Amino acid sequence: MLAQLSLFVILCAAGVFVSEATADADALSDGKKSARVCGSCHGPKGIARVESYPSLAGQSAQYLAKQLRAFRDGSRTDPQMSVLAKGLSDAEIVNISAWYASLSSCK
């Protein structure tokens, strides 16, 4: 009976980890889709081709989310970014930030 209970606890814990990994994979997939428009300036893999645009690959997700929220609420302004960020939901900001953070910053 104790062995069955232990196995049950282990399987339940494994299920939690699988669910979290799936959620993370879904968030990254959603972030990749939402970030398509970003690729025109920041590069399709987050490495900007133009020096005046920052590369986003490998940046901290928290930092990227903070900057996107600042563009969205107007506390930081840029002619292009302010307009683009205004339409982003909180979930889109988190997912886009996670997507760029997951990418390698190596060219």
Compact summary:
The protein starts with a helix and ends in a 5-residue tail after the last helix. The protein has 5 helices and no strands. By secondary structure, it is mainly α.
- Relative helix content: 55-70%
Total helix count?
5
Largest sheet at a glance? none
Summed up, the domain count is 1
Multimer state = single chain
Radius of gyration: 18 Å
- The ordered string of helix (H) and strand (E) elements is HHHHH
How many distinct beta strands? Answer: 0
Tell me about this structure.
Mean pLDDT is 83; it is low at 2-23. The protein is mostly helical. The longest helix is centred in the N-terminal third of the chain and has 33 residues, at 2-34. α1 crosses α5 (90-102) and α3 (61-73) packs antiparallel against α5. The protein has helices spanning 2-34, 39-42, 61-73, 81-86, 90-102. It has one domain (21-102): Cytochrome c-like domain (Cytochrome Bc1 Complex, Chain D, domain 2, Orthogonal Bundle).
Spell out the key features of this protein.
mainly alpha; Cytochrome Bc1 Complex, Chain D, domain 2; disordered N terminus
Please outline the helices and strands.
Elements: H1 2-34, H2 39-42, H3 61-73, H4 81-86, H5 90-102
Helix pairs in contact: 1-5, 3-5
